[in-house]
Write the C-alpha cells for this entry.
Amino acid sequence: MRRRFVLRFALLFVLFLVAVVVVNVLAFHGFTGPPHRRFLPFGVVVLLVLGGLALLRGVRGFAGPVGDVMEAADRVAEGDYSARIEERGPREIRRLGRSFNEMAERLRTNEERRRNLLADVTHELRTPLAVIQANLEGLLDGVYPTDPEHLAPILEETKMMSRLLDDLQTLSTAEAGALRLHREIVAPGALVDEVVARFQVAAADAGVSLHRRVSEGLPPIVVDHLRIVEVFTNLLSNALRHTPRGGSVVVEARDAGGVVAFSVTDTGRGIPPKELDHVFDRFAKTADSEGAGLGLAIAKSLVIAHRGEIAVTSPPGEGTAVRFSLPTTGTG
C-alpha cells in the first residue's frame, strides 16, 4: 500500500516534468506563444525540477509512516488488535502513530474484557441453570413431589440469577460512565449509623461485634444515598462473611482534608497477598467465597462514579480494611 502511494505520486511528478518539456518543445518550434515567450526561463525550469525532487523526497518520507498507519488500520479492521506502528517521520505523523497505538491498545483491552466477561457470566449461570433443570425434570418425571421442599431450590436459584444480572447491569453501567446518580446532601455520621443498624442482626447471628467510629464535626457529602448504602452493603457483607465468631467489624468515618474517609475493618483471616491485587476485578473471589465475586467490583465502580477513591489493605493475619473517600460539599 505504501509502495503504491509513492508510485502514484512519482507518476504524477513524471507527468509534470513531461508537461514542462512538451511546453518548451512546442514553444521552440513556434507552435505556441509569441516569439518573445517561446521558452520558459531556464532558471524557472531548474527551480521547478529541484522543487519537484525535494517534494518527492519529502513525500517519500511522509508516505512511509502514513502507509504504516494504513496497513495497521486494515489489520485492526480485520480484528487483529495487536497491530502497532513505529513512531517515525514528522512530528505530526509521530503523534498520529502514537494515537493509533493507544487506540489499538484500548480496543485490545476492551475485547479481552468482553471475552472474559462472557466466559465468566457463562460460568456463573451454568450452575443455577443446572439446578433448575434437574429439579424441574424430577418434578415432571414424578421423581420429586410438587412440594415447597423441592420448589424452594428452584426459586432460590432464579433469585440468584436475577441478582447476578442486576449486579452486572449496575457494574457495566457504572464502568461506562452512564450511571445516573440522584445526589443529595448526606451527613456522614447518619450514613454510618444507618448501615450499622441494618447489619446489627446479621452480625449478632454470626457472633461478630459491629462497631461505629465517627469523628465529630464531619462536613456533609453530596452523594446518591442508595448507591453509597450499596457500597457499604457489599463491604459489610464481605467483612461479616470472612470474620470468625468472636471477631469484630468496625465502620469508621473521619475527616481527611477535603474528603470524608470511610472504612470497613474486620479481624478476619485476611486476603492472601497473591490475590490482593485482584480483589476489585470482576468475579474475583477466593475458593471459599460465596456469591459471584462482583461485590468489590461494584463498590469500586460506584465510588469512582462519585469521584472518590477506594483501596484495600490486608496485612497477613491482621484482617482486612477497605477504605474509600468521598468529596465533601465544598470540593465535590
The longest strand covers residues 248-255. Helices lie at 2-28, 42-77, 91-140, 148-175, 188-206, 225-241, 273-276, 295-305. The radius of gyration is 34 Å. Confidence is low (pLDDT under 50) at residues 35-40.
